[in-house]
Specification:
The complex is a heterodimer of chains A (about 325) and B (about 325).
Chain A: H1 5-31, H2 45-52, E1 60-62, H3 68-73, H4 78-85, H5 119-133, E2 144-149, H6 156-168, E3 172-178, E4 181-182, E5 185-186, H7 187-190, H8 198-203, E6 207-212, H9 216-231, E7 237-242, H10 262-269, H11 272-282, H12 288-311
Parallel strand pairs in A: 1-2, 2-3, 3-7, 6-7
Antiparallel strand pairs in A: 4-5
Helix pairs in contact in A: 1-2, 1-11, 1-12, 2-9, 4-12, 5-6
Chain B: E1 2-5, H1 6-20, E2 24-29, H2 54-58, E3 63-66, H3 70-82, E4 86-91, H4 97-108, H5 111-114, E5 124-129, H6 144-148, E6 154-156, H7 161-173, E7 178-183, E8 190-193, E9 207-210, E10 215-219, H8 222-236, E11 241-245, E12 248-250, H9 254-264, E13 267-271, H10 279-290, E14 300-303, H11 313-319, H12 323-335
The chains are: A alpha/beta (about 325), B alpha/beta (about 325).
Bound molecules: thiamine diphosphate and magnesium ion.
Thiamine diphosphate sits at the interface of chains A and B.
């Protein structure tokens, strides 16, 4: 499906926003200003954006510990996220959650998650709710998407969620982002089927797709098919995207598990943003100047968000006690 | 004596015990690290560096790198233990107890009792716990109270490198299931560790780390250092505190607690976890029941509030106990008459 110029520019802006957001954090973390554990999404942008460009605020996603990209792609506010990561009271979660727990339920973003494998069952519940609510005027269901890594696919929760989605015919989509590593362990060791997560999902009785997660249009096109299938009420589906993470598992990871030159190679050959630029300009869908302008605007927006995050109000000690309950 | 860090005491004790006893095995996520990667096994070990070099020495059968599957990790430890092995399972964060709870609570803890005493289950679950890293609500918790409340489990909370060595060796040689809780903020703490390859600290023996006549302070893990620092400040002002490091919460050294309270008549309990149904309330009930006549003031508790653990630096430090809060509680206990 060929996207319009506007849609392409918007997708590029989103991917670029994620990239710039993460690169900034990568630098800032070295200065010690940011507290806690931060897992960067750089390299996987085409997946989050290629999936979420199809969604409305009423479609739900559940994310992972590596959640910034999913949040940004689903429309979470850049400044609100930056303030959250800075631990500000003005942050999207008032400084309570931080990087691993960013959420914006109004945007259909049901949270990043610090517990690997916790997301899939939650997405199934959201999908059940969508099934109860029924199709819209065009006969299409809302959906719920669980993003999971190649590591998370080994949790029993993920298996249980897949089976339950199949037997309840919930409009859930399991998006597996295979970046080949779970922390310091290789995918080929930890996933017994080797080179494939999708076939596991298939064994649970759902339809599956596979695509190159570093190719935006492959992700986007695949998701068009997947969403058409799931929105029509055929039950759940799974997609495996082969992708790359550019930075360490967490910030400070020396990455000695990688091959020599691997990082240079994936940045050279598997950079989804570089590939997007090349293919869009070669096909004369967009020209370099348009893209450069987006780059400049994104850089400005990120800079503005950091300035705002630094200046934002700090939380107060008494805030600790707030929001445990609605009423107590 | 050798000077080493808390984390090295973990690793060295496991290493020595694996050398001594072939039935000791280790399992957990990234306990080898680098499996199935271009860098190869041990390219980088686990994030806490508590299993460095084990794989090279003992091989893949005894140092088992697992997928991310905490239920299966803990359950497999149970099965290994029922089959003559002495597994040491690692939960990278104690919070993941949540994922594996059935295997701990309904399985490992109860095997011996349910089977009429006909079996033993010498499994160790190492849990890396505690706040102080701004790791927020799912990576900072101290779940010792729920585990202490489970009949069948022994729960160990060392606060120094020497106690790590003595208690971990005891745990490995112990025939019951043991939850071994390592505080992540103590990993870098240095201390002297005895060279004796059989150095064990029996469970249920608390350690008096400061002696004083005025107030008793009870603490575990990271709270011990805070209690000591409060006690040192108070000592400069002529107030003497007994600081008791419980070391194990199950079994519990009731005698050490009651003996001290008999002398001081005043008790401050420091607990990193929230206050409801907690270690602090448990100890408080013990003293109220068994040393009521000795008490000269209400029991004070310095605990986290009844909230999840917040992320922001300011919020996490407001959440946690600290020496100032402990000092204030001691003064409050003393002011009562
Ligand atoms: C239940 C649980 N187990 C372990 C961890 C520690 N941990 C955090 S991320 C991670 C690796 C996850 O790998 P994957 O699912 O492939 O996601 P990626 O990091 O590659 O995005 C691990 C082991 C955790 N947070 N939660
Ligand atoms: Mg991965």
């Amino acid at each position: 499906m060929q996207l319009s110029r506007e849609d392409l520019l918007q997708a590029y802006r989103r991917m670029k926003t994620i990239r710039a957001f993460e690169e900034l954090l990568h630098d800032e973390i070295q200065t010690g200003e940011i507290a806690g554990f931060t897992h960067l999404y750089c390299g996987q942008e085409a997946v989050a954006v290629g999936v979420c460009e199809h969604l409305s605020d009423d479609d739900k996603i559940v994310s992972t510990h590596r959640g910034h990209g999913h949040c940004l792609a689903k429309g979470c506010d850049v400044e609100g996220m930056m303030k959250e990561i800075w631990g500000s009271r003005e942050g999207l979660c008032k400084g309570k959650g931080g990087s691993m727990h960013i959420a914006d339920v109004d945007k259909g973003m049901l949270g990043a998650n610090g517990i690997v494998g916790a997301g899939a069952p939650i997405a199934v519940g959201a999908a059940m709710a969508a099934k109860i609510d029924g199709p819209d005027a065009n006969g299409k269901l809302k959906v719920a998407i669980a993003f999971s890594g190649d590591g998370a696919c080994n949790q029993g929760t993920t298996f249980e969620a897949m089976n339950m989605a199949v037997v309840t015919k919930a409009p859930a989509i399991f998006v597996f982002e295979n970046n080949h590593y779970s922390e310091h362990t290789g995918f080929e060791y930890a996933v017994g089927t080797q080179r494939d997560i999708a076939s596991r999902a298939e064994a649970f009785g759902m339809r599956v797709w596979r695509a190159d997660g570093t190719d935006f249009s492959a992700v986007h096109d695949t998701m068009s098919e997947v969403l058409e299938y799931v929105r029509a009420g055929n039950g759940p589906a799974a997609v495996e995207f082969d992708t790359e993470r550019f930075y360490g598992h967490f910030e400070g990871d020396p990455q000695r598990y990688r091959a020599k030159g691997e990082l240079d190679r994936i940045r050279e050959e598997r950079d989804c943003i570089k590939k997007f630029r090349e293919s869009a300009t070669e096909a004369k869908l967009l020209d370099g100047a348009d893209l450069d302008q987006v780059d400049a605007e994104v850089a400005q927006a990120i800079e503005k968000a950091v300035v705002a995050a630094r200046a934002a109000e700090r939380p107060k000690a008494e805030d600790v006690l707030v929001d445990v309950y609605i009423d107590y | 004596m050798a000077k080493m860090m808390y984390r090295d005491a973990v690793r060295n004790t496991i290493f020595q015990e694996m050398k001594r006893d072939d039935s000791v095995v280790v399992l957990g996520e990234d306990v080898v690290g680098g499996m199935g990667t271009p860098g190869g096994p041990e390219a980088i070990g686990g994030i806490w560096s508590t299993s460095t070099g084990l794989f090279g020495e003992f091989g893949a059968d005894r140092v088992i790198d697992t997928p991310i599957s905490e239920s299966a990790i803990v359950g497999a430890a149970g099965g290994l233990a029922l089959s003559g092995k002495r597994p040491i399972a690692e939960l990278m964060f104690a919070d993941f107890i949540g994922v594996s709870l059935d295997q701990i609570w309904n399985q490992i803890a109860k095997f011996r009792y349910m089977f009429g005493g006909k079996t033993k289950c010498p499994a160790i679950i190492r849990c890396i716990y505690g706040a102080g890293y701004n790791a927020a609500a799912q990576h900072s918790q101290s779940p010792h109270a729920i585990l202490t409340g489970m009949p069948g489990l022994k729960v160990v909370m060392p606060s120094t490198p020497a106690d790590v060595a003595g208690l971990l060796r005891q745990a490995i040689r112990d025939d019951d299931p043991v939850i071994f809780m390592e505080h992540k903020a103590l990993y870098g703490v240095q201390g002297e560790v005895p060279d004796d390859p059989d150095f064990c600290i029996p469970f249920g023996h608390a350690r008096l780390t400061r002696a004083g006549q005025d107030v008793t302070i009870l603490a575990t893990g990271m709270m011990v250092g805070m209690a000591e620092s409060a006690a040192d400040t108070l000592a400069e002002n002529g107030i003497g505190c007994d600081v008791i490091d419980l070391r194990t919460t199950s079994p519990l050294d009731e005698e050490a607690i009651l003996d001290s309270v008999e002398v001081t008549g005043r008790l401050v309990i420091v607990d990193e976890a929230p206050p409801r149904c907690s270690l602090a309330t448990d100890l408080s009930a013990l003293v109220a029941q068994k040393a009521f006549a000795s008490l000269r003031a209400p029991i004070e508790m310095v605990t986290a509030p009844h909230t999840p653990i917040p992320f922001a630096r300011e919020l996490e430090s407001a959440y946690l106990p600290n020496p100032d809060k402990i000092e204030a509680a001691v003064r409050k206990a003393l002011a009562y008459n």
